[in-house]
């Protein structure tokens, strides 16, 4: 939450922590994945199946009402936005705003990128649980998890290195942070390890 506070509103003893506040999102993804994954594995262990309809309805009713109320208010009343410009409404409504989200174009409702990642995860996880339950050993599960963490780090590094090289050549280093957010920080495919 510290990153979203104005620097002057940050208590002095927490100013040093503010630099690392971005880790909170990663922790959220890991905890959310653990909690939802545990629920799904318990269900599949107990019943041998996952009630996909029930799972998706629970997720939708937990996220969609508040999300679409805020989105609607931002679309109808721009004065309520946390920033004057905003990405396209359809990209928010389809939970794809985190792909090619460029803060130089629109900054309102930037928090939605993490909801997009979460919704993509919820869309795929129950299907993976059904596919993998009782088909692979714990050892292979750990190997796959470790491979995903390492692959995630390599992917982010590779994307960043290729993008920063283009920026240096184009003498647009000031855009580096926006490119980092758009190409490395926001997309779902760079968050799979979390």
Automatic annotation (TrEMBL):
<dbReference type="InterPro" id="IPR050879">
    <property type="entry name" value="Acyltransferase_3"/>
</dbReference>
<keyword id="KW-0812">Transmembrane</keyword>
<feature type="transmembrane region" description="Helical">
    <location>
        <begin position="140"/>
        <end position="159"/>
    </location>
</feature>
<feature type="transmembrane region" description="Helical">
    <location>
        <begin position="61"/>
        <end position="80"/>
    </location>
</feature>
<keyword id="KW-0808">Transferase</keyword>
<dbReference type="Pfam" id="PF01757">
    <property type="entry name" value="Acyl_transf_3"/>
</dbReference>
<dbReference type="GO" id="GO:0016746">
    <property type="term" value="F:acyltransferase activity"/>
</dbReference>
<keyword id="KW-0614">Plasmid</keyword>
<feature type="domain" description="Acyltransferase 3">
    <location>
        <begin position="23"/>
        <end position="158"/>
    </location>
</feature>
<keyword id="KW-1133">Transmembrane helix</keyword>
<feature type="transmembrane region" description="Helical">
    <location>
        <begin position="20"/>
        <end position="41"/>
    </location>
</feature>
<keyword id="KW-0012">Acyltransferase</keyword>
<feature type="transmembrane region" description="Helical">
    <location>
        <begin position="112"/>
        <end position="133"/>
    </location>
</feature>
<keyword id="KW-0472">Membrane</keyword>
<dbReference type="InterPro" id="IPR002656">
    <property type="entry name" value="Acyl_transf_3_dom"/>
</dbReference>
<protein>
    <submittedName>
        <fullName>Acyltransferase</fullName>
    </submittedName>
</protein>
């Amino acid at each position: 939450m510290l990153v979203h506070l104005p620097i002057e509103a940050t208590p002095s003893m927490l100013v040093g922590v503010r630099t690392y506040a971005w880790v909170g999102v990663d922790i959220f993804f890991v905890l959310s994945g653990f909690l939802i994954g545990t629920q799904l594995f318990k269900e599949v262990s107990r019943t041998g199946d996952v009630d996909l309809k029930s799972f998706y309805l629970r997720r939708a009713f937990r996220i969609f009402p508040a999300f679409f109320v805020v989105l609607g208010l931002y679309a109808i009343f721009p004065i309520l936005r946390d920033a004057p410009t905003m990405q396209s409404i359809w990209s928010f409504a389809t939970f794809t705003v985190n792909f090619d989200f460029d803060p130089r174009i629109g900054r309102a409702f930037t928090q939605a990128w993490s909801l997009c990642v979460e919704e993509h995860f919820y869309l795929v996880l129950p299907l993976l649980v059904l596919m993998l339950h009782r088909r692979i050993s714990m050892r292979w599960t750990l190997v796959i998890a470790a491979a995903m963490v390492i692959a995630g780090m390599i992917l982010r590094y590779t994307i960043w290195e290729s993008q920063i090289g283009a920026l240096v050549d184009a003498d647009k280093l000031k855009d580096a942070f926006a490119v980092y957010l758009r190409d490395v920080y926001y997309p779902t495919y760079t968050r799979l390890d979390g």
